[in-house]
Amino acid sequence: MSLVVFLSVLGAALLHASWNALVRVGASRVGTMMVLSGVQGMIGLVIALTMDWPSAAVWPWLIASGVIHSAYKIFLTFAYEHGDLSRVYPLARGTAPMITLMVGAVWLGEAVAANETAGIVVLGAGILALARGVWTSGESRRMLPYAFGAACATAGYTVVDGLGARVAADAALFVAWLFVLDGIIFAIVILALRGRGSLPKGWRVWTAGCIGAAASYGSYAVAVWAMTLAPIALVAALRETSILFGVLIGWLFFSERMSRGKVFSVALIATGVVLTRL
User: Fold this and answer.
1) 207 vs 70, 136, 204, 225, CA distance in Å?
2) Are 40 and 23 in contact (CB under 8 A)?
């Protein structure tokens, strides 16, 4: 991996943590995420209209992916309504690889390498320790099911997107239409759950959402580009530094409490994720 690619992937990891921070700190977390999803959808539509129409075989995968991505954003948004960035982000981001590996091993019969087994063990220990910290620190326990729901959705769309992109034979086409459907589905579900009060209001919400959309799309684009120039496993492992960036942002910019237990738990999660990716 060249220095340019290395620094670019680190930048992508920072962008991913940053758009999560924008949602967490926003005056209206739901409104910010609605703007983010909507802007992503418009970007995706512009790109999609320059490409061929997806075949009939691709649409079931696109719809499934759009639903799962929307579920991910809903769970994540609700988690940030009840918990800190430095608690929610590592749980949501770190649990997903463990779920993906375990599902692959149990239901798909995929072999689990020694490093992946070690990663699952370390990950599990870190996740349990970080979740336990919610009880000992007096934080709201309501964020836990939402954070783990976001992790399950992440694992779900990882599998669906991978298979769907293969059916489409064009990852860019699949991702573009995915963001279009995600933006529509997210808006419909949020309006059904929260009503018109969830509509974005004020320039701060719109600004945060637009910046978050650009950061999210940019992070994904850089990661895909890097995987064409460097080993995919190495890029995937380096991307997980976003967990550390998320914790640092929460500590430095939001003054979130950083106990020794939280630092140790996050370190375990980051180490476990890297082990599963190598």
Assistant:
1) 21, 36, 5, 27
2) no
Q: What is the pLDDT along the chain (278 residues), one digit of tens a residue?
A: 788 888 888 898 899 899 889 888 766 888 889 999 999 999 999 999 999 999 999 999 999 999 999 999 999 999 998 888 888 888 888 787 777 777 777 776 666 677 777 877 887 788 778 777 777 767 778 888 999 899 899 888 877 887 888 888 888 888 899 999 999 999 999 999 888 877 878 788 888 889 988 898 888 778 777 866 777 666 767 777 788 888 889 888 888 888 888 888 888 878 887 777 66
Q: What is the DSSP string of 16-57?
A: HHHHHHHHHHSSSHHHHHHHHHHHHHHHHHHHHTTSPPPPTT
- Which residue bears the tokens 């890297």? 274
Structure tokens at 228: 């064409």
Q: What CA–CA distance (Å, rounded) separates 156 from 175?
A: 15
In eight-state DSSP terms, residue 250 is H
Runs of H (alpha helix) within 55-170: 59-80, 85-106, 114-137, 143-168
Structure tokens at 76: 């994540």
Is the distance from CB of 84 to CB of 246 less than 8 angstroms? no
With contact defined as beta carbons under 8 Å apart, do 61 and 167 qualify? Answer: yes
Asked whether 208 and 39 are in contact (CB, 8 A), the reply is no
Tokens of 42: 């418009």
